[in-house]
């Protein structure tokens, strides 16, 4: 896989070799566009917002005596965790369909009204995308 980026193998070819549908990006982009409530993301990683604020504050007024030293790596890590929480929440809807008995789904976040709203919206997006993929695979265009 690492060598594929240095060769002329296309992304579509790499995706097809892994078993992904050829137009999978439609679902990925549609799902990524869904806004999530901040309160829901904070429930997954409760302290990450605090760390984000603390690092931002340190960039604005650095204090060399403080144990928290803002670095590019620290900020990037916090941003990755924030993005991971959004991705996990979005993907959990479809993962729940595949593995309904997994103990993870017993967590209180999955019965939260905000999550249930997101779950409903992700399912609507998935159904629309499946319809679009069906039309694309049949060689027709939707008007």
UniProtKB/TrEMBL annotation:
Signal sequence bounds: none
Transmembrane portions of the chain: none
Pfam short name (any one): NDC10_II
Molecular function terms, GO-annotated: DNA binding
InterPro entries to which the protein is assigned, alphabetical: Ndc10_dom2_sf (IPR038279), NDC10_II (IPR031872)
Residue ranges occupied by any Ndc10 domain in the UniProt entry: 1-115
Superkingdom of the source species: Eukaryota
Name listed for the protein in its UniProt record: Ndc10 domain-containing protein
Species for this entry: Absidia glauca
The encoding gene: ABSGL_12714.1 scaffold 13359
């Amino acid at each position: 896989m690492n060598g594929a980026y240095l060769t002329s193998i296309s992304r579509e070819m790499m995706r097809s070799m892994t078993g992904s549908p050829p137009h999978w990006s439609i679902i990925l982009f549609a799902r990524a566009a869904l806004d999530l409530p901040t309160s829901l993301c904070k429930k997954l990683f409760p302290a990450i917002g605090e760390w984000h604020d603390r690092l931002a504050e340190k960039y604005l007024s650095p204090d060399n005596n403080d144990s928290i030293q803002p670095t590019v790596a620290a900020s990037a890590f916090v941003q990755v965790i924030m993005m991971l929480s959004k991705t996990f929440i979005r993907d959990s809807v479809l993962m729940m369909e595949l593995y309904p008995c997994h103990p993870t789904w017993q967590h209180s976040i999955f019965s939260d009204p905000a999550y249930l709203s997101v779950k409903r919206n992700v399912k609507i997006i998935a159904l629309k995308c499946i319809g679009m993929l069906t039309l694309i695979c049949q060689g027709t265009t939707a008007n």
